[in-house]
Design a protein that fits this description.
Layout (H helix, E strand, L loop, with lengths): L12 H4 L3 H8 L3 H24 L19 H14 L3 H8 L4 H18 L3 H8 L5 H7 L4 E10 L7 H7 E2 L4 E10 L5 E4 L3 E2 L4 H8 L8 E3 L7 H4 L4 E3 L12 H25 L15 H18 L1
Parallel strand pairs: 1-6, 6-7
Antiparallel strand pairs: 1-3, 2-3, 3-4, 3-5
Helix pairs in contact: 4-6, 5-6, 6-13
């Protein structure tokens, strides 16, 4: 349906796939994983997705398929998206040097392929919609092995808002001493991201985010938190919660409490490792240079890629 012009670029699927270690370093996926997503999902959905996208304009005069064509084929555009997310280099470097595109083209190409990729991978919203409908203990254990879930938030820096004093105040994180956005995650015992909130302003406390945007879990599941969520057992008595013991002023922790804290920390390593995987995609680790309206879409896709790798390993 869409014609493609041949273009010489420093990076392409054909060239990069000959070097498996570089491929994984540049994209965050192995060649097998990349091909699996592309062959089983993207190729099946692409034409329908493009037809729907091109049919949105009611005042369209040209026939579908007319007009400016993409210079890269679908596979190389998917590759370009992953390289951009993984390395988070500037559009100028991605476009002008690596893929031999004009900077305006790369903005358009990435924006168009993002919507498709988001449909092709197990983003947290898809999994959470299933977990809300679980009924039997066997169904619950399939998604929450050991009947455990782990909840925590992570922060990412954003550029300092220049013209809006109120915005500067709302996004300033006293913990990080910079302007940030926060996202709350819930994982299961395997590290699969079951729930992800939309981004919140960095000024808000983790527990405040949870109180107003907390995920619903089956009654059999124990939610494991850190001390940032102190008070949750009192505020949410209907759910099972696990917190470490807090040291009181002038009192030492008992040996039993110390052992509880050690075991609690070991269990929580699941979500710490998930956050580490998330931040290996530098678009989720460096200062977020894109518009904040794009942040949730980006975090959805990165979370979905992590879920895909865990679920297929």
């Amino acid at each position: 349906m869409v014609a493609h012009q041949s273009v010489f670029s420093l990076i392409s699927y054909d060239r990069l796939s000959k070097k498996p270690l570089l491929f994984k370093s540049f994209t965050g996926l192995t060649i097998v994983e990349f091909n699996d997503i592309y062959d089983k999902e993207i190729t099946k959905r692409y034409h329908k997705h493009e037809s729907k996208r091109l049919s949105k304009r009611k005042d369209r005069e040209r026939s579908i398929g007319a007009g400016r064509h993409f210079k890269l084929d679908v596979k190389d555009r998917f590759l370009m998206l992953l390289v951009y997310y993984r390395l988070y280099i500037t559009y100028t470097l991605v476009a002008g040097f690596l893929f031999d595109l004009d900077q305006s083209n790369i903005c358009r190409d990435i924006q168009k392929i993002e919507r498709l990729v988001r449909k092709c991978i197990p983003i947290p919203q898809k999994i959470y919609n299933i977990t809300k409908r679980l009924q039997t203990p066997d169904e619950v254990e399939a998604y929450f092995p050991g009947f455990l879930s782990f909840i925590d938030s992570t922060e990412q820096s954003i550029p300092r808002p220049i013209d809006n004093k109120r915005k500067r105040k709302l996004f300033y994180s006293g913990k990080k001493k910079r302007h940030t956005v926060k996202t709350q995650f819930m994982t299961n015992n395997h590290g699969i991201i079951v729930y992800k909130s939309n981004y919140k302003k960095g000024r808000r406390h983790d527990y405040d985010i949870y109180k107003k945007n907390h995920p619903e879990t089956p009654k059999e599941v124990v939610n494991v938190f850190d001390l940032g969520y102190l008070g949750i057992e009192k505020d949410f008595p209907e759910q099972k919660s696990s917190l470490p013991s807090k040291k009181k002023r002038n009192l030492e922790l008992s040996q039993q409490e110390i052992e509880h804290n050690k075991n609690h920390s070991k269990r929580r390593m699941v979500i710490e490792h998930m956050i580490c995987r998330l931040k290996k995609f530098r678009i989720m680790n460096d200062v977020f240079r894109n518009k904040l309206s794009k942040y949730d879409k980006v975090s959805d896709i990165v979370s979905g890629l992590i879920n895909y790798r865990i679920m297929t390993s």
